[in-house]
Amino acid sequence: MARKKPRVHIVGTGTIGEPLVYLLTEQRKEIGLGEVSFYKRTPLVEEVGKVKRMVEVGAVFSAGEDKFPQFKELGLHPMLTHQQALERADVIIDCTPEGNKLKEKYYLALSQKYPKKGFIAQGSEEGFGVPYVWTVNDKCLFGRFIQVVSCNTHQLVCPINTLIIKHEGIENLKNGKFFIARRGSDISEDKVNPGVEAEAAKEKYRQYGTHQAYDAARVIQTLYSRPISIPIHSQIIKVPTQYMHTMLFDIEIKSPIHYKEALARLEANPLIVFTNLKSTNRVFDRARNTSKARGRILNQTVFYKPSLDVSEDGTHIRGTCFTPQDGNALLSSVAATLWLLDPATYKEKMKVFDKFLFTEVV
Ligand SMILES: NC(=O)c1ccc[n+]([C@@H]2O[C@H](COP(=O)([O-])OP(=O)(O)OC[C@H]3O[C@@H](n4cnc5c(N)ncnc54)[C@H](OP(=O)(O)O)[C@@H]3O)[C@@H](O)[C@H]2O)c1
Questions:
Q1: Which of 303, 278, 322 is closest to 360 using CA atoms?
Q2: In this predicted structure, what is the pLDDT of residue 290?
Q3: Over the stretch 169-216, which tens digit does the pLDDT of each residue have?
Q4: Which residues contact 98 (CB under 8 A, 6 or more apart)?
Q5: How many angstroms separate the alpha carbon of residue 35 from the centre of ligand 1?
Q6: Counting C-beta atoms within 10 Å of the first and last residue's C-beta, which end of the chain has fewer, N or C?
Q7: Domain ranges, residue 223
């Protein structure tokens, strides 16, 4: 008898969950998946269209059994209870801000009952599992729990990995300074923030500044078997835009390199896309018009090319990058899912998603 195709269940249908439902459902045949289901927690009249569209592309709608009557009143028909979907799935991708809480509530017990099941959480859910960024620390994946780190951590790790770790190694990093301007809210949200907001320093992140560099260091540390020094520091403010984050960096290295070499290293990474557009508004606009992934940019960073600057002595590399926060971590969730299903074939299957990557934002 043919082996049943693996099932994936996505918990949460917000900024991250919804596009992931589309990516996995629409590519499921090409990557050998069976059912892709999702859990919508709250019955909301304004989200009826969203649920319908995900069902239309073939995703299976699950809800809490107690919420079935309210969803039915809205004209929505859950096919599974959330509990059924959790039990059936081979991989569960948590796309809520409460991954660790739900790990305690559901996932740990499920993992004991079904030791082969895999679990993924998003963002800054430290302690959920191996902190992971696609193409950076794949060789360090182990176990059944993976934390796909935040969008800004993807952004921060990407140039360090591309310029240094992949070449001379982290030992060549003397000092990395990262300044992040965060978007105030997502375009899917009604929140507004009229001014620039500062962030208070936290004792926990003292060495690294904020959680973004702290998490980046956790990702990089997985690459080494002994504790290593990772001299990076981030600072952050929130700015009144809904479009994208922006990151400025100044990486100081021990062995100097030439501008041309820095550019070549960045160009060699297909997860980095260059642009000559100097504002997030314009980058966002071009992506909305040309993205093959429902307006999202799945590259880890959009690098403003004219900002690339290498000091005369070759020891400082500086630049400004735009962060497609609602897209740049999605491929890490896809890769983690496919790795949990079969570490031997996941890299080959990830090629299916190359077609969604921007090669330029013009
Ligand atoms: N937004 C970004 O750009 C971004 C980027 C990278 C990573 N992340 C991370 O991704 C995660 C999700 O963020 P998001 O921006 O997608 O959030 P979001 O847009 O606010 O959506 C959250 C979703 O999770 C559901 N949810 C919340 N608490 C839940 C619970 N206890 N049980 C079940 N469902 C629950 C909500 O369901 P209902 O609305 O139906 O109640 C909603 O569908 C966070 O960890 C975040 O840090 C976000």
A1: 303
A2: 96
A3: 999 999 999 999 999 999 888 888 889 999 999 999 999 999 999 999
A4: none
A5: 22
A6: N
A7: 151-323
